[in-house]
Amino acid sequence: MRRLLGVVTKGSLTEGLEMKLAEDCSIEDIKAGKFVVIEGDKLRFFSLITDLRLDATTPAVLQNPPDVSDDLVREVLSGTATYATVTLKPMLTTERDETEKGGGRGARDGADEDKMPERREPQPVKTVPPHFSPVYEATSADVARIFGSEDMEPKGRYFCIGTPLDMDTPVCLDLHRFVERSNGIFGKTGTGKTFLTRLILTGLMRWVTLGNGKVVTLVFDMHNEYGWKALKETGGTRGEVKGLRYLFGSQVAVFTLDPESSRTRQVPFDGTVVISLDQITVDDIAPLQDELRLHQTAIEAAHLVYTRYGRNWLEQLLAYGDAGDIKGLAEQIGANRESLAALYRKLKRIADLPFVVPSDQKPKKDIVETIMRYLQSGIHVVLEFGRQGSMLAYLLVANILARRIHEMYVRMTEEYLATMDPTKEPRQLVIVIEEAHKFLNPYAAKQTIFGTIAREMRKYYVSLLIIDQRPSGIDDEILSQIGTKIVAQLNDERDIQAVLTGVSNPAGLRSILASLDSKQQVLVLGHAVPMPVVVKVRDYDECCVTVSRELADYIPEVHDRMQEEEFEKLALASDDGANGGSESEWVEEWRQRMLEERWNEVFGEE
Asked: What is the pLDDT of residues 64-80, one digit of tens each?
């Protein structure tokens, strides 16, 4: 039987409902963010606990509290003269089953709560349940009814990101709705934003591998955490976790700005990113104003140089500056000499970056076009920055690539809309950027290509997945366009207010955010989930094992790797003297069997 928590006593549609806690329930077991179900006469209300309060039938009881050591009196008063009130916020409704309607509001108490229900489309809440409607703990069936499950068709569309508080039932993201809009992952430093991002990218790539998702991802990996492997801390000790290339093989390509760093870390890469000076436009420089401390007059001077020299503007500026003839250039283009000199000094930092080369030294094969071809062919791309993880390098490269991708996707979409040929429909692209407030602050959002993507590119099959610890630094208009927000612990009141921009019932969700643990707890709300929910985030290592087993039949590299790892485990076990020689013989037989199976796959059976 499901657990009865209490009954509804009063409330309203706008302010939420109040529940009197049942006498046999301890208030210490009830947590903000918990998922509960209210059984009305005709409807079932799926609700969140947003607040808890201690009450008494008369103030006199509180003015003369029992002695601390008098447990008997406290127990007598509890539930009669003193009681607990829980504030609930109904989020969604579904119609009750006919059998439950006939049995009254308590009929669900005896229902088979473990039976997986047919998923009904939940509806927004437009009414309230009657007085004394029972409130129950949510069950696995309730969670699946609202959030779906990984077993539902089409395979891969629903991906488990964690479980509700005090439950072991998966909460799934609807990935189809997730990629329709730009999304955000927010939380202060140390709350696991990178692990959560890697988990979601694993879900997206799994969806594609299973053949039902048409999406591709581009990750600007500032700290080398998404490609092959990354560090993790567990109980004060460091370990390693698998990256996306390790999990998905050749379906993920890794490019680097720092090949020496990749060799030092002993990780293969598919190409080295080199940016030539003639690939950098004034539009790529404008978002760097804060980082380079450029005055607006310097940007205006850059436009004058570009008007005079076209795509060679930056090389010409540097050449005049190196020759000490900024005055001559200023006279040619009619710019202020001091502004032009300041522009030269600041942009010299860009020319000194190791991956930036003169136009006559650029590779014959345009690496940016190579990356775009990978994306067009459905291969996910991780761009590692190696030791070039400065904010200047990150902003510059991300802007250049995003601008080119924007142009490509606009062209592809217009071609598709002109012909409506299904084979020409672009793949949905998700661009992952860290430190998003650097790209999307109120000033930069109006100038950077990322601001354009966040506001308009949904219609062109491009969306952003932004990761940030200071959402208050992001432009309000951009935040209002975020479809799904995954929010870990935040302490700054401005950040909390920012992530709740445009959300109904912000007061209730604010109290939930304040109660989140610093690790593995997030509030998920928005387009990809039917209602806000607090989840304990799924363990990434467990996810890697599960996904690898599931996809071994789809990706030959994963299949071979799993066999090799299994063999290594068995071989290590056979070397243990306590196991004797029988296990070693069994391992050898297993190895021979695997070799025979591989022979038959390649050459066929005799």
From this structure: 787 777 777 777 777 67
